[in-house]
Write a structure and sequence with these properties.
There is one protein chain. With 66 residues, the chain is mainly alpha-helical. It has one domain. It contains 4 helices and no strands. It starts with a helix and ends with a helix.
Length: 66
């Protein structure tokens, strides 16, 4: 498969190479948001979630808004 990607023009090859990372990043963010919402709904404060996850309070607030 990688050989076929290498045959593409550079611009297209670069785009295709970034796809798995973008899907991974999106999945990671969705997982973080779900975890934070669950922890918050179970009564944990933003500070407690911060200590448990190493996410900043600002990031936790962003994820709760989603």
């Amino acid at each position: 498969m990688r050989e076929k990607v290498d045959e593409l023009p550079k611009k297209e090859s670069d785009f295709v190479s970034q796809l798995p990372n973008s899907y991974f990043d999106r999945g990671k963010e969705q997982g973080q948001a779900e975890l934070v919402r669950t922890m918050f709904s179970n009564g944990l404060t933003a500070r407690e979630i911060e200590q448990a996850t190493n996410l900043s309070v600002e990031r936790i607030k962003q994820l709760l808004k989603k």
